[in-house]
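Re-run with default settings, no changes from the original entry. Doing this only to confirm the output is reproducible before filing.
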Amino acid sequence: MDLDAYTRARTPTWQRLDELTRRRSLTGAEADELVALYQATATDLSAVRSAAPDPATVTRLSHGLARARGRLAGTHVPSFGEVAAFVTVRLPAALYRVRWWTVGVTVAFLVVAVATGVLVATSPDALALMGTAAEQEAYVNEAFEAYYAPGAGFAAMVWTNNAWIAAVCVGTGITGLLPAYMLLTNAVNVGAAGGLMAAHGRLDVFLQLIAPHGLLELTAIFVAGAAGLRLFWTWVDPGPRPRGRALAQEGRALFTVALGLVGVLAVSGLVEGFVTGTALPWPLKVGVGVVALAAFWAYVLVLGRRAVAAGETGDLDADRAGYAVATAG
């Protein structure tokens, strides 16, 4: 191909496409012409790429086609409607679809945490691993309670840390190992802290300080771990879908979960920063935690069931998710 000659011959078509793309309004005939020019230019781009892939020409045509495609197909304009759809439909659907995985992770976490706590509280050898007698006394009588200092700074720190843990659980879910490892280490740490407090007769303090925010906070971590493990299982058993498509669909839906958990963890961070360490009566503080957890599960089960029954999965709309190659069956 003589690229220079081809460019001279086709330039009027490309310029006309750019001209129509930039117009504020089009007549019916001009809209039809825009479609025809778009198709012709797409053919030109294919020919140039195949026979004479000049970078400048390819870039010029690609940019022109992208602008024309936006004019033909329209663009998505952010709106409160999109935000509302995410909060009331996509997110609860995605959370609802991992509910049983969440229950499984919760049970496994509690078994490990309780077993670790009992071991530390009842075994002198295990208790000795928690530090010297002086270090244990300092932790039980001062450090544990002092950690929960009320304030916005503490709430922000807790939120950032937990959001990071949740993101790692979801983002590394394809490995299967990292989410399981993070959940296991957190279960052991929580159980060991509880066992240490119990061994020194302060289990009530442990529960009073953990329950207000921990019920929602740990549930968010369980959801993140469940989402990551579900993605891993999709890789192992994609079902009737091609593995690549199954991973793409589930991955996008679980990214929805990750975004939603940022908000859930923000709520738990606020509770931890402004309720847990305050002088409020402990029944009231624990009640706040119970209400927060109940509200979360009501949100998931009521809105999520409704959204899933309507066919929602938490994935992007078809026009935003990209093209999928048709497969038999």
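Residues 318-329 have pLDDT under 50 and may be disordered. Residues 217 and 268 are 5 Å apart (CA to CA).
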